[in-house]
Amino acid sequence: MIDDVGGAKGLFLLFTGDGKGKTTAALGLAFRALGHGFPVCVIQFIKGAWQPGEVAAAKRFDDLLDFHVMGRGFTWKSDDLAKDIAVAREAWRFAKKTIGEGRHRLVILDELTYLISYKMIDEQDVIDTVASRPAGTHVVVTGRGASEKLMAAADLVTEMRAIKHPYKSGIKACKGIEF
Ligand code: ATP
Ligand code: MG
Predict the structure, then answer these.
(1) Is residue 3 part of a domain?
(2) Structurally, how many domains does the chain consist of?
(3) In this predicted model, what pLDDT tens digit does every residue of 22-36 receive, in sequence order?
(4) How far is the CA of 167 from the centre of ligand 1 (A)?
(5) Mean pLDDT, the chain, whole residue set
(6) pTM (predicted TM-score)
(7) Where are the alpha helices (DSSP H) in 36-147?
(8) pLDDT tens across 22-79, in order?
(9) In testing the pocket of ligand 1, which one of 20, 115, 117 has its CB within 8 Å of the most ligand atoms?
(10) CATH code of 90's domain
(11) Residue 2: is it exposed, middle or buried by C-beta count within 10 angstroms (0-12/13-18/19+)?
(12) Is residue 106 part of a domain?
């Protein structure tokens, strides 16, 4: 049977674990939803060292896909933690507003778990925001180290487990694969 909205409310999906594939799985869902003509919003909370391919690819879907890179950089390289926290909170406020507006069928919160683990934002606020989303909105959260509490709140949890990664054999991040 087909369920168009995922139990009327929409689904909360969580991709966690320390293996590769969390962000790519989320982007795969975006691609799938766009194919059905569903409006999608992607918010990336951590800005990496490279310009990821998905940022440029998103421009090709600009009628349906809103793509925001909101992070300041990797926190463990931070030169100004207070600034990181302010940027993270502002990004989360934006995400909350986006979810609340209900314009998108799919909202992807990429690497959101790090903001929670670094205590930059409140986990309960995340859970409450997702729980009170407008009907028919799917929310995807990605990132390592999701808590038991966040996992309990989700409808679907997939843990990516690292069996093997080329990084371990000294192969550096590869364009089109890592970013
Ligand atoms: P991707 O964006 O490729 O789907 P991810 O979202 O699952 O990866 P993150 O934790 O966000 O993984 O880390 C992003 C980067 O770290 C990617 O370049 C990815 O290839 C790399 N990475 C992921 N898992 C591992 C691992 N087990 N060992 C080394 N590097 C990894
Ligand atoms: Mg990721």
Answers:
(1) no
(2) 1
(3) 999 999 999 999 999
(4) 10
(5) 94
(6) 0.95
(7) 53-58, 81-101, 112-117, 123-131
(8) 999 999 999 999 999 999 999 999 988 888 999 999 999 999 999 999 987 665 667 7
(9) 20
(10) 3.40.50.300
(11) exposed
(12) yes
